[in-house]
Description:
mainly alpha
Amino acid sequence: MLDFEFRSHCPISSALDIFGDKWSLVIIRDLFIGINTYSDFLKSPEKISTNILVDRIKKLRSHGILEFKRDVNDNKIKYYYLTDSGIDLFPMIMNLSLWSRKHLHVEPGPFSKRDYALIDLNGLDSFLKETTSKYIKTRETILN
């Protein structure tokens, strides 16, 4: 982790210093839905600019939230993946999504209507456990 000065000792403020900008949680969300290359991040519907993407990836890496592995056949291609610390953000992301669904009445985005139906049927804890387990298997595929 890079030398980093937090604004205060408040845990919420400190967390927001790392990923409280407009883009970081979108990048983390994208990793959970299967986006894992630089060019794929650029295709996201939110239209992140290249300089912002580079900056946020560096910031998230410096705080141990994501890492990458180079493609064995093409050294220019990097496959990004969440560390355990990044995976631990998934419940927060899903809770934000559920809050938006309830209070902002927005249509499901990257998380499908099926995902919300599973949450309604089996509960959030079950959905989080299953989705996290699937992501860890995906990460293992990238690393091997």
